[in-house]
Amino acid sequence: MPLLMKKIFLFLFLLVLVACNSSPQTSKKKCTDCHQFHLDPNHRFSCPRCHQGHSPATDKEEAHQGLIASPASPENMEKLCGPCHAKEVKRLKKSLHFTLAGEVNLVRGIFGLSPVKAAVDLPTPSKITTLDDLVSDLLRRRCLRCHLFYQGDDYAETRRGKGCAACHLFFAQGQLQRHEFLKTPPDRLCLHCHYGNHVGWDYYGMFEHDYPYQFRSPLIEGKLPPRPWGIEFHELTPDVHLKHGMSCLACHHQEEIMGDGHYYRDQSQAVKVRCLDCHQIKDEHSPYHHPKVLSQARCSTCHALWSFQDQGWHLILTEDPDWDEWSEFMVQGPSEIESLIISYLTTGQARAEMKDKFTGTQRPGVWFLAFGWRQFEKVPFGLDQKGRLAVVRPLLDLHLSYVNAEDDVIFDNFYPASLKKTPQKAYVAYGPHTIGPGDTFRAQEVLKRLGLFHEFFGVRRR
Q1: 196 conformational bin, left if phi > 0, alpha if psi -120 to 50, beta if neither
Q2: Are 208 and 237 in contact (CB under 8 A)?
Q3: What percentage of the chain's residues is helix, strand, coil (to nearest 5)?
Q4: Burial 175-200 (b: 16+ CB within 10 A, else e)
Q5: How far is Cα 209 from Cα 147, in angstroms, rounded to an integer?
Q6: What are the pLDDT tens digits along the chain (462 aa)?
Q7: Using CA atoms, how far apart are residues 93 and 84, in angstroms rounded to an integer?
Q8: What is the CA angle 126-129-132, rounded to 5?
Q9: How many CB atoms sit inside 10 A of residue 53's CB?
Q10: Residue 24 to residue 28: CA distance in whole angstroms
Q11: H/E element holding 162?
């Protein structure tokens, strides 16, 4: 064979050999070759079953074609979680955790606006001209940062999954830690939403610091303390049930959290567990535990050690903020605001926009918050929706302002007319998770409020 023919033959042989070794079939990879997650026994099936996409695949582009990153999110959960968990998904979609109807309609009602069935039904204003626009924008972009449609603020203990994953996948340090689905979520996951001066944090004895810099935590070895929830906090007395090792789910059962298949207007309709379900009163002759008292007053009126008392919520929407003026309020909950102010302080520029927490779209303007005063020592009383004496907090003491990009003041410290007429309407009954030994002096005040003090203690009026 001539030398030239031998060289050509050798070249073709090597070409075929290389082609065979680079066959797409031999270089394909599975999802787990790149994503090192272990699945729990109940979900140990192929990744595309939930995430779609392709596995095995030759490259990232092919593998991620049609990928659904969050199959448990509200827009996907019925299609992807529903085939196996149809009952749970159906109930969840009607639950107060999903609709947020309680929070939304409480705020809309105090401003004289009509109720909505769920938070997703709130108007999405492209331009704010009416009070409904302003309140809806406040709820969608500032207040409702803790719901199943949003992954949470960008802090270590506020980032979470969406939809079913918010409770059933373990997030910590700002990211997913493992892909094993949890049947019983730990308290740490509850606190991804129930933090700040809202029920949940109080169970662990935490109360927000005020926002101005001089009221925040002092330096520890020259540094500010860590802020895993984005805000600093005072450490107060935790709930006695926590001290005895009880988790959130020890009292808050599945039917309350995931719903029971019915729509509810507010939490008072859906709560199933009562103190007396576990605590059997043995001495009904005690004036404080007499049936007349227990039927007319919540247990927390005597047993709450402290309560959230933030008064004068001043919420200001401004489309052209004075960043220097607001820099003192950099730490106030939303990570967006902190990032914007840091951007201004470091680069001299900041785009005054915030995200709609349901649609993900950016709209002009930043919602800032400041308080008249904040305290926890006082435990005031009022009536709940069933007419019982209860601990109340000024949750609806809301003052709204709006300044547009041209510095025109559209709403100036707007305060609901119903609150001007009846200030007590700003106070809302709630269940403080700060339970401990009963306060005797407050218990006697409860008897006086109920008109039972003289009956039990035999003190004659002069």
Answers
A1: left
A2: no
A3: 35, 15, 50
A4: eeeebbbeeebebebbbbbbbbbeeb
A5: 23
A6: 565 555 555 555 555 555 555 444 557 888 888 888 888 888 988 889 999 999 899 998 998 999 999 999 999 999 999 999 999 999 999 999 999 999 999 999 999 999 999 999 999 998 999 999 999 999 999 999 998 999 999 999 999 999 999 999 999 999 999 999 999 999 999 999 999 999 999 999 999 999 988 887 777 777 778 899 999 999 999 999 999 999 999 999 988 899 998 998 877 777 778 898 999 887 767 899 999 999 999 999 999 999 999 999 999 999 999 999 999 999 999 999 999 999 999 999 999 999 999 999 999 999 999 999 999 999 999 999 899 999 999 999 999 999 999 999 999 999 999 999 999 999 999 999 999 999 999 999 999 999 999 888 875 555
A7: 16
A8: 85
A9: 17
A10: 6
A11: none
Rg (CA), the chain: 28
> Which long-range contacts link 92-97 to residues 24+ away (Cβ below 8 Å)?
92/164, 92/258, 92/259, 93/259, 94/259, 94/261, 94/262, 94/263, 95/257, 95/258, 95/259, 95/270, 96/259, 96/264, 96/266, 96/267, 96/270, 97/148, 97/257, 97/258, 97/259
Q: How far, in Å, CA of 243 to CA of 367, rounded?
A: 38
How far apart, in whole angstroms, are the C-alpha atoms of residue 232 and residue 127? 34
- How do beta strands 389-393 and 381-383 pair? antiparallel
Pairing of strands 233-235, 362-364: unpaired
The count of other CB atoms within 10 Å of the CB of residue 144 is 20
Identify each DSSP E strand in 276-324 by its residue range: 309-318
C-alpha 195, offset from chain centre: 7
Alpha-carbon distance 88 to 90, whole Å?
A: 5
For residue 398, list its beta bridge partners: 313
Q: What are phi and psi of 57, to 5 degrees?
A: -150, 160
Q: Are 382 and 295 in contact (CB under 8 A)?
A: no
CA angle 135, 136, 140 (to 5 degrees): 120
Please report, as a single letter, which amino acid is at residue 202.
D
What is the C-alpha separation between 384 and 171, in angstroms, rounded? 36
